[in-house]
């Protein structure tokens, strides 16, 4: 494990992971009560990827997410109530309730947005990296996407261009083993995603995405190389979504036995175990988790009480 991560830092990372889990569980409850419309794509089980990567990045590094972006938003430290408000279409949301789950950005936090198009954020991050290089900045653009997006033309075109121009971009594939209902074994001829990197003269690595400490460690090393001008890299993190593709997914394409087996490697359980091995008391671990849940509960109450936004206020101030 990475000795540079202190026990207090790991406990903070654990608390943030619990916040993401509680946030999405709260969203699920709001859907069931009819208080949240549309659809949403949860990252339950994948929290270690978002927290591990983003904790290794600078606040000034630019992030581009995908349709499963709640974890990335909260891992960057965005205000939970404002994110919740955006999903509810409230004026308090980061985009005034007009962006929703799949079109939420926060430019003041260097978050270029979630994206409802499979692979749609990859060229955006590549463009951001070009801008960073043009400005002679030592910041990096980080693109999050799933294994399904690696079969899109945007993936291959972006990696090729980024390598040709040695752009400061880290491509992060959260391989949760399924593209919607299609297992990666039936959609990816190479079996894994990182092995595609050498085709574009790029360094690629595959790692255990369940281990937040390992994710932080390998991301830190990758970002250091990219910042040093060694060119872009592809980082593949093997993970698993414990939920369906979206809230209406009955998960008929995989067995409950498989899900139970993968749940044994729940990143929250693994991180709590690591904390105990470091000597952190169970009381402190439980207190961190409870604080995270209370923050999410308070944020949900604030978002529910906020005034409506979205289309009703889309033209506010436009002609002022």
From TrEMBL:
InterPro entries: DH_E1 (IPR001017), PDH_E1_Alpha_Subunit (IPR050642), THDP-binding (IPR029061). One of its GO terms (biological process) is pyruvate decarboxylation to acetyl-CoA. Pfam families: E1_dh (PF00676). CDD domains: TPP_E1_PDC_ADC_BCADC. It comes from Oligosphaera ethanolica. One of its GO terms (molecular function) is pyruvate dehydrogenase (acetyl-transferring) activity. Residues 16-307 form the Dehydrogenase E1 component domain. The keyword Oxidoreductase applies. Its cofactor is thiamine diphosphate. This is TPP-dependent pyruvate/acetoin dehydrogenase alpha subunit. Keywords: Oxidoreductase, Pyruvate, Thiamine pyrophosphate.
């Amino acid at each position: 494990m990475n000795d540079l991560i202190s026990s207090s830092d790991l406990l903070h990372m654990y608390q943030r992971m619990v916040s993401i889990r509680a946030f999405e569980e709260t969203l699920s409850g709001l859907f069931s009560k009819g208080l949240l419309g549309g659809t949403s794509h949860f990252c339950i089980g994948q929290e270690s990827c978002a927290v591990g990567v983003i904790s290794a990045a600078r606040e000034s590094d630019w992030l581009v997410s995908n349709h499963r972006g709640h974890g990335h938003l909260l891992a960057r430290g965005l205000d939970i109530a404002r994110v919740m408000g955006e999903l509810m279409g409230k004026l308090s949301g980061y985009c005034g309730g007009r962006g929703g789950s799949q079109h939420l950005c926060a430019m003041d936090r260097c978050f270029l947005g979630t994206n409802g198009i499979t692979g749609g954020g990859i060229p955006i991050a590549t463009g951001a990296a070009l801008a960073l290089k043009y400005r002679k900045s030592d910041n990096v653009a980080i693109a999050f996407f799933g294994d399904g997006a690696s079969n899109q033309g945007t993936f291959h075109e972006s990696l090729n261009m980024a390598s040709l121009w040695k752009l400061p971009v880290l491509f992060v594939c959260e391989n949760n083993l399924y593209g919607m209902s299609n297992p990666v074994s039936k959609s990816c001829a190479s079996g894994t995603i990182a092995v595609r990197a050498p085709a574009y003269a790029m360094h690629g690595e595959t790692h255990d995405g369940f281990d937040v400490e390992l994710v932080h460690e390998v991301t830190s090393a990758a970002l250091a190389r990219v910042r040093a001008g060694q060119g872009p890299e592809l980082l593949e993190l093997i993970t698993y979504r414990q939920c369906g593709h979206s809230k209406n997914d009955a998960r008929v394409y995989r067995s409950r036995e498989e899900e139970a087996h993968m749940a044994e490697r729940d990143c929250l359980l693994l991180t709590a175990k690591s904390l105990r091995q470091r000597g952190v008391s169970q009381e402190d671990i439980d207190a961190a988790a409870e604080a995270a849940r209370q923050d999410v509960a308070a944020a949900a109450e604030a978002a529910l009480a906020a005034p409506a936004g979205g289309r009703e206020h889309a033209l506010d101030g436009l002609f002022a």
